[in-house]
Amino acid sequence: MTGSEEYDVVIVGAGFSGLYAIHRIRRLGLSLRCFEAGDGVGGTWYWNRYPGARVDIESMQYSYSFDEGLQQEWKWPEYFSPQADLEAYANHVADRFGLREHIEFETRVNRLRFDEAENRWHIAAENGRTATAKYIVAACGSLDATNVPAFPGLDTFRGQWFHTSKWPKDGVPFEGKRVGLIGTGSTGIQAVPVIAKTAEHLTVFQRTPAYSLPAYNRATDPEYEQAWKANYQDRRTAMFGNFAASYMENEQYRSVFDYTPEERLRILEEAWAARNGLLFMRTFSDIGTSLEANTVVAEFVRDKIRGLVKDPAVAEMLCPKTYPIGAKRICMDTGYFEAYNRDNVKLVDVRANPIAEITPTGLRTTTGEYDLDIIVFATGFDAVTGSMTRMNVTGLGGRDLRDKWTDGPTTYLGFLVAGFPNLFMIHGPGSPGVLAQMITAGEWQVDFVAGLIADMEAAGRHRIDTAPEWERRWNLEVEEAAGHTLYNKADSWYVGANIPGKPRVFMIYIGGFDRYKQRCTEQVTNGYEGFVFDAPIGASR
Ligand code: N01
């Protein structure tokens, strides 16, 4: 389809939040269109089809809550679903709820311009498609804009190279190949053991070692599934009131210092063996706030790594020592550390000896040359802000969003940016984003935005905005929440440290999803405090 059609709402992105936004906003009786860069639905779970890609939150809860029939009927074969199962689920949802007819695929939005006389957004995509809309719902992902470091010589490489999040649909055969993998975050640690199984040789280039816990993925136990399905409503209600939008049972949650060293060790051993993944990080209440408490847990994990890796020198290289556990996103793996016991896997420290260049035949560090047939970039993302800033967004007075965010992103409640009216971000900077379970938190944010749009339409308003003063106040709340934690003690993508030149700002609201919901709701019920309309909107909901 070509031409500049007019819509009430344009949704950018057909990932899990974008799909739900179509379903929810359609019910308002407004005209809408969704533009999606890929040729299928699923967002993160469409793009990240690298070997070993798998979610690290149990699928019974990492799934939609909005339809009881859907959650009762859908079967998750494994506790932690692989990419293919999540993509299949997204496709099922798109078909079951008739969402596909609203989506234009292979339409990557690369220009959003607000026309202040019309109070409408003008949308343009790479394929020439144009449209206008009163409202934009930007559901374009926190981890979408890829980071391929600017190593000199990449264009001269005669082999193949891939970024993990833009993986070919047909897969990449590694048989008989010398593979180099750069990056040991969540993605790298999932890919390494799988690639190692088929590649002739795998060299892993590690700049910072990761704390990783065993995922203990397994086939879904029918009793466990039944317990969820018999209690879905109650558990979903609990998730919507939880600080991480997650369901948690049997929380111990006391300080490390309430226990003797022997008791701590017993608790940690039990948690390690309990097959409950990320809950390991909630063994004690102060892991995220006290460096001393954190060190107890970090040292326990380092000892586990030393036990898993046979070569002591390699084990030491794999032990994270420069930042607290959890200050970077904790990883979950299936046989990651054990992969280094294989003869065909080699670990190279590129912190001590950085990558100097990519050569026609491989890669050169400051001390060594490596011949490679394939290079895998597991080097992460221009996270949280990248998908917005890469869209060339201009607001009032023609101001570019990149200029506005030169010193770091500013938002009101993680949704609105002052001077960029009628634009709502889902999982935007200043929202709980990746620190809450993203499908559930996304559903709530979409519902909240749909409520704002309904209020606007009922009141006959043309413009919703916020003011810099309210962004400043919200940013202070975001900073204060992070200030009590150890998150600032690591050079992570949470603070933009992985992208050269990106301002170092903690971009996520860590005060809890429950608190965040409360703050958003009370601002609306307090007479839309902090929201700026073209004319007063009257009584609050
Ligand atoms: O990206 P990352 P990711 N030279 O940024 C290294 C989610 N996720 O794709 O740490 C050499 O974490 C970089 O090194 P350093 C999850 O939220 C979830 O792995 O910056 N190395 C790091 O090791 C996760 O946090 C799941 O020193 C360079 C790696 O590349 C987020 O996605 C699975 C380099 C990048 O790690 C991102 O994870 C996968 C350079 N120039 C992802 N530049 C699950 O649900 C970067 N690196 C399980």
Describe it.
With 541 residues, the protein is of the alpha/beta class. It has 16 helices and 20 strands. It has helices spanning 16-26, 44-47, 68-73, 83-96, 186-198, 222-230, 232-240, 261-273, 291-308, 312-318, 336-339, 386-389, 401-404, 438-459, 468-483, 513-525; strands at 4-12, 32-35, 103-104, 109-115, 120-125, 130-138, 160-163, 178-182, 201-206, 212-214, 331-333, 345-349, 355-359, 362-365, 369-371, 374-377, 393-394, 423-425, 464-466, 531-533. The strands form 5 sheets. Strands 1, 2, 3, 4, 5, 6, 17 and 18 form an 8-stranded mixed beta sheet that branches. Strand 8 (178-182), helix 5 and strand 9 form a beta-alpha-beta unit. The longest helix has 22 residues, at 438-459. The two termini are 39 Å apart. The mean pLDDT is 95. 3-acetylpyridine adenine dinucleotide is lined by residues 54-56, 143, 149, 182-188, 190, 207-208, 329, 332, 350, 355, 378-381, 434, 493, 498.
